[in-house]
Amino acid sequence: MKKDFVALVAFLLIVSAFIAGCASISIYSTVNPDTTISNYKMTIDTTSMVYGLIDAQIKSNFDQSLYNYDEKWNGDKVTITFTAKSNIRSNDPVNWTIQKVNNQMVYEDKRFMSFPASDASNPFSNSMANTVSLNYYLEMPGKITSSTANKIDGNKAEWHLQGNKIATTDIYASSDLPLLPGFDALVGIIGIIAALFLVKVKKY
């Protein structure tokens, strides 16, 4: 993706949803111990009318060397999917950061906060803003110790935001770091070997 592509998509969907109907963005991100991101994917679920308004802009702004593009239709509904071809790094060091701080891995994505929230006193404005939703799924390299997420389960966090909440919520999570890359897997292997050894000893 080119710089700020996700922010561009969010902007296009927000504007288009006001004109032509609902839209939903889902983002999946797995943070590795080296601060790269694997299994990165973004899906957009919307109507054919919204698709018609954003299609040309989206296709001309994502990096085809880094991402695969796919779209599926079901009647008037369309799902657009961008999937990273390999591990990636943040391309927006101001609004999308992944860093190690005091033995913690800190992930922060503020790209959706670059758009103003709707007028809270205007029921119509709020109603239209609520036609756009964001579902964000994040997996950290260790147990999450603090986050702004709606749901946390071990090293996984989820945000389910709608309307103004998208523009006012900082996607933030901090997790423990594994002692060594692959340390957990090594412990598991040692445990299996030890168990097999004990079984063999008992036979004798």
Q: What portion of residues is helical?
A: 25-40%
Could you state the order of secondary-structure elements as H and E? Answer: HEEHEEEEHEEEEHEH
The CATH topology is Immunoglobulin-like
Poorly predicted ranges = 118-125
CA-based gyration radius: 21 Å
- The whole-number mean of residue pLDDT values reads 84
What's the CATH architecture name?
A: Sandwich
Structural class: alpha+beta
Can you summarize the main beta sheet?
7 strands, mixed
Strand content: 35-45%
Report what the structure shows.
It contains five helices and eleven strands. Strands 3-4-2-1-7-10-9 form a seven-stranded mixed β-sheet. A four-stranded antiparallel β-sheet has the order 5-6-11-8, with no helix packed on it. The protein has one domain (5-203): Sandwich (Immunoglobulin-like). With 204 residues, the protein is α+β, with helices and mostly antiparallel strands. A hairpin with a 5-residue loop joins β1 (23-31) and β2 (37-47). The protein has helices at residues 5-20, 48-59, 123-129, 164-168, 183-203; strands at residues 23-31, 37-47, 67-74, 77-84, 96-101, 104-109, 132-139, 144-147, 151-153, 156-162, 171-176.
Helices and strands, with pairings:
Elements: H1 5-20, E1 23-31, E2 37-47, H2 48-59, E3 67-74, E4 77-84, E5 96-101, E6 104-109, H3 123-129, E7 132-139, E8 144-147, E9 151-153, E10 156-162, H4 164-168, E11 171-176, H5 183-203
Parallel strand pairs: 1-7
Antiparallel strand pairs: 1-2, 2-4, 3-4, 5-6, 6-11, 7-10, 8-11, 9-10
Helix pairs in contact: 1-2
Provide tags for this entry.
globular, 30% helix, 5 helices, 4-stranded antiparallel sheet, Immunoglobulin-like, alpha+beta, 11 strands, 7-stranded mixed sheet, 204 residues
